[in-house]
Amino acid sequence: MKKKLSLGLFGFGCVGQGLHRVLSETLGLQTEIRKICIRHPEKPRSLPLEYFTTDRELLLNDPDIDIIVELIDDADTAFEIVRDALKRGKAVVTANKRMVANRLDELRELQQRYGRPVLYEGAVCGSIPIIRNLEEYYDNDFINRIEGIVNGSTNYILTKVTEEGKSYATALAEAQANGFAESDPRLDVGGYDPSFKLSILLTHAFGLRVRPEKIVRVGIDRLTAADLDYARAEHLRIKLVAGAYRFGDEVIALVAPKYVAEGHALYAVRNEFNAVSVEGLFAEEQLFVGKGAGGNPTGSAVLSDISALRYDYRYEYRKSAISTGLSFTEDALLDVSISADPSVRLSPSEFSRFKGGYRTKTSNRLEGEVRLSTLRDLTQREDISIILAPGAVPRPAKIAEKHVELETA
Ligand SMILES: NC(=O)c1ccc[n+]([C@@H]2O[C@H](COP(=O)([O-])OP(=O)(O)OC[C@H]3O[C@@H](n4cnc5c(N)ncnc54)[C@H](OP(=O)(O)O)[C@@H]3O)[C@@H](O)[C@H]2O)c1
Known about the structure:
The protein is an alpha/beta fold. It contains 14 helices and 18 strands. The protein has helices spanning 14-25, 56-60, 75-87, 97-114, 130-137, 152-163, 168-177, 186-189, 192-206, 225-233, 295-308, 318-321, 372-378, 397-408; strands at 5-10, 31-37, 52-53, 67-70, 91-94, 118-119, 143-149, 216-217, 236-247, 250-261, 273-280, 284-291, 327-328, 332-340, 353-359, 364-371, 384-388, 395-396. Strands 7, 8, 9, 10, 11, 12 and 13 form a 7-stranded mixed sheet that branches. Strands 3-2-1-4-5-6 form a 6-stranded parallel sheet, with helices on both faces. Strand 9 (236-247) and strand 10 form a beta hairpin. The N and C termini lie far apart (68 Å). The chain binds NADP nicotinamide-adenine-dinucleotide phosphate (NAP).
C-alpha cells in the first residue's frame, strides 16, 4: 500500500467530523480525504463544498481511493456501500454496529471472496480497543466472562438522572446535543445498541455467532421514579449492563439494567464513559475504561483501524476458527427485581424462586429468581420495570437446579 493513504469518506456527522479533526491533528499517519459522500447537499459544512458529493459511485469507482470509511447512520445503505467497496478491491473501516451485528456472516463471506478487510473497532465502545484486544491479546486465552457498560448515551442519562436529579427528558436531550445518542434514541434507551455490540463481542470473545434479536434485552426506558429512589436509598447505582458468561461449554448473554454497589468495577463509570471487564481463564480480570461515544473518541478508533490497514491488518476470527465447542443457551436463571405502579398486578408465579416483595404508596416491588426465557416474555410488558439484583450473574438452570436439589436433599 502507498505511504499516503487515500480515503473515501461516507458521512460527515458527529463521527465523520470527529475523524476529520483527528486526521488533521495526528502526526504519524499521512492521509488524504479525496471525497466525502453525504445525504443532504444543502447542509452548511465546515469544509469547502468541492469535498462533498451525494454520488456514492464517485468514491467507489475512484481507483486512487484505497480505503472506504463508512460513517453513516443508515445500516442498510451502509451495508451496500461496504459490499460494493469490497467488490471493487477496497479495504473498509466502519463504525456501524447495527450493520456489523446484523450482517456479520455476509461481511465475513465478502472479505473472504474479495480478499479485502473490514475493520470496525469504532463500532464497539468508541475509543476502547476491545475488538483488537480480543482478537490479538486474548487469542489463546479462554474468556469466562465479558461484561460492561457499552452504551455511552444511556450511561450519561443514568448518571444525570440518578446522581444529579435531572429529568429523563433533559438528560436525553443533553446526550443528543453532545453527539452521544444514536439518531434514533430508541436504539440506545431500548437496549438495542448494546445488543448489537454484545452480538459482535460474542463472535470475537467466544467464536459464537448470535444474532442481536436472540439476546434478551431490557432497556432503561421503563425505569420508574421509585427505582431511582430505591437505588439512592440503598446507595446503589443503576447501570445498563451487557454481559456474556461462560459456564462449561455454554454461554449465556443478556442486556439489562443492573443495580451495582460501591466497589463493583462498573460503579464509578459515569457519564458517556464505557467500561468492559474481561475475565480470561489465564489473564483473569481486566477492566478497560474509556469514552464510548462522541466524535473524537470514536474518530480515534477509526483512525487506529485506518492505521492498521497500512500493514494489511485483518481480523482472523480466531475463536470461530478454532473449534471451541461452545454453544449459546437461554436455559438460565438470574436474580431480578420487578417493580410497577401499585395499580399493576404483579404475581410471584413469574419467579422460579420468589424471594419477597413489598408495596408502598408509589410502587409495588417483587424480588427473586427468574428464568431467562420468562424474562424475555416479561420484556413485552410495558407496565413493569426490570432491574437485575446487585451482583446478579445469570447461571445455567441445570447447574443452579442441581445445586438446590443437593441443598434440600
Ligand atoms: N455518535 C457516536 O458517538 C457514535 C459512536 C460509535 C459509533 N457510531 C456510529 O457511527 C455512525 C455515524 O454516526 P454519527 O453519530 O456520526 O451519525 P450522524 O451525526 O447522524 O451523521 C450521519 C451522517 O451520515 C450521512 N448519511 C446518512 N445517510 C447517508 C447516505 N445514504 N449516503 C451518504 N451519507 C449519508 C449524513 O449526511 P448529512 O450530513 O447530509 O445529513 C451525516 O453526515 C453510525 O453507524 C453510528 O452508529 C456513532
